[in-house]
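User: two proteins, same treatment. go.

Assistant:
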Amino acid sequence: MAQKFDAIVIGTGQSGPALAARLTKEGMKTAVIERKLFGGTCVNVGCIPTKALVASARAAHMARRGADFGVAIAGPVEVDMKKVKARKDAIVRQSNEGVTNWLKNMQNCTVFHGHGRFESAHSVRVDDALLEAEKVFINVGARPFVPDMAGISDVDYLTSSSIMEMDFLPEHLIIIGGSYIGLEFAQMYRRFGSRVTVVEMGDRLIARDDEDVSAAVKEILEDEGIEIRLNAQCLSVSGHAQGVAVQVECDSGAPEIVGSHILLAVGRRPNTHDLGLEEAGITMDARSFIVVDEQLRTNVPGVWATGDVNGRGAFTHTSYNDYEIVVANLFDNDPRKLSDRITAYGLYVDPPLGRVGMTENEVRATGRKALVGKMMMARVGRARERSETQGFMKVLIDAESKKILGAALLGIGGDEVVHSILDIMYTGAPYTTIQRAMPIHPTVSELIPTMLGDLKPLE
């Protein structure tokens, strides 16, 4: 016999627990299903652990640079990867246990630990239990994509998830994929002490960003000794006495790259393959993402999809914003929608990249008249004080409305400073609002008004 609930939440990524909390607060008897790790990707194998590792890598990097600041460090800087992993694990455990305890102690909430699968539009089976509810929220996230590359099934390989269990230093890490995940691991492991080679099929890194951003990131990574191979075609892999070999056709460089380990960082796939969506009649697109409307509703009444699984954002912050949109419409008489939000994300290499709104290429594609401001980080006092002058800031303005269209801040504090621009964009105010502000000195933010005071036509 089916167990009756008012709502079912499948998955405990960023939006799932928050949804459960609001549903129960509204007096709804709620079932939460989690098949593996409470907290989802971000807490367990994504944002939190990777940024913990980035912090350890930066500590090693800055220790090696001690002499630049007049600080003498006796002997070589050594990295204990077992302690690095233990620190990361402790941080993850705290977050994971926090989410787990929150859900398991939530009043009016029943937690089912197992794999949920639809048997009909409003019934989900978890092992021997059949659950029914009028409202179902799908929050099952995504997983690393393993490409159909020749020879990949014959070698051991790492993904962004499995590499989290590594407590040793690979001698030579070959990373397939030159986008966000791959580049963060590239710099991280180079700073830990590995030799690192990045192999990218495209003609530049982080192809979604502008060419000047891609070029600057490439220069930053190469300056740290990371080898980058672009235009890599006809990729294949095979076993080798030293570990693994990657056969590649590039514009330059040897046709074979031999390393000790290989990391696949070529994107993620939604976890929709074994949910029984066909039984529920829920529509997916060609890439197996669940199709949703502006308020995260699927084509089936009473079923919503939030987070990575809907293909409308691949970040923790977009997943949480999905939750906010859903509950605003369900309970708050506040008709929020997906198109209200402005694209914003970060690349956590060091220095970081903060990105909001449109890229320069996207602005050009609209054909509108626009203005652009650009400032090299070498002009920023805070950057010079810390001897971290790599990168630049760039902002794009609509020439007629004076509204900010987008910005890229690649440099010290860029992932934080960019929010001053994002906030103005959400208000719909003209750029002069921030250009006439009086920021604190010495900061990175103080140069935003200066940059905005020297705009030029985008040609």
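Protein 2:
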Amino acid sequence: MKHQITLVGGQILPVYVGIKEFNPDKVHFLVSNDSKNGISSLKSQIQKVKYSEYICNPFDFYEIKSICEKIVEKIESEDEVSFNLTGGTKIMVLAAQSVIHEKNLQGFYINQDDTFLKLPEYKQSKINTEISIKEFFTLSGHNIFSYKELSDYTNNDFNVVKTIESFANTNKKYSSITNHFRRKYQKIPQTGKESLQNGVIVTWDTKSIVAVFNGKTIFNISSDKAMDLFFNAAWWELIVAQEVSKWNKIKEICLGLELPFKTDNKIMKNEIDLLINTGKKLFFIECKSGNVKQEDINKMKIIKQTYGGLISKSVLVSRYMVNSNILEKCKELDIEVFYSYAFNNIEINPVSKLITTLNNINAKGSI
């Protein structure tokens, strides 16, 4: 029988990875009063594994060591025992490590680069376990969410995206139209007609948008997703998603992922423009076709901390150069910034280079 003694801290993902990678028959969780609630979301994921919980003072070396020794003493001598040292406080790790050395046992520490360190020989090996998006979110206590996939979009939708991109890159009236609607409407009506100060007249319904200037049509699209693609700037998200989908590290990709409140699943709490799963970590990508604001960066920070943890990465993909204040804040919060500026059909740092950026981020590890 395989036993795993696991130190539990603020991050649940390395606890789950340790269980999934080494497949123990029973897990002994060493928790504090602060960390004991963290494993509640884990239990539904390990239903076939037996487990016990032991509450300790995470800063009392001798108490922690005594608990570990008592656990080991109750295990049959022919059974296999290992320690997951990834979580918990430094004192918890030191206490568990002393038991490993004194009793000639095994242990491991899960690194941030998809490897684990095996004790006591300190040999580094690759982690084989892959985690799905559903598993990632369930571990954070959020198992209800919805999203779109690239296959949900038709060839016509992609042609519409090209039309919007061309209009946005070559006609300054694109910004005046989008800014007008952003200022006037919190939620744009299903049908309507707007006359802008610069003389542009925009008429729309759920399947079409037409812009006329001086009696001449300057923009015209038709799609079931016309309003989302244009007014909500989903066209930019789709362009980024198309390029990112070519990355050979991707296992899953989600567009417009929506997470409702637990208390009312009809009200959205957070929306993630683009979510990539490599099987090892999540990449939260915020796609901005207009100006980037402080609240956009704050949102990215919260989403990463809440749903992805330390192992995840946040990436801002902006259509324009971002100002120095935003860059400084992104650096402080470990948010990678990629901007693809295009105007008059001249592309600077095109989106096609984004995969190179993602490869560099992935190679650097998680922190």
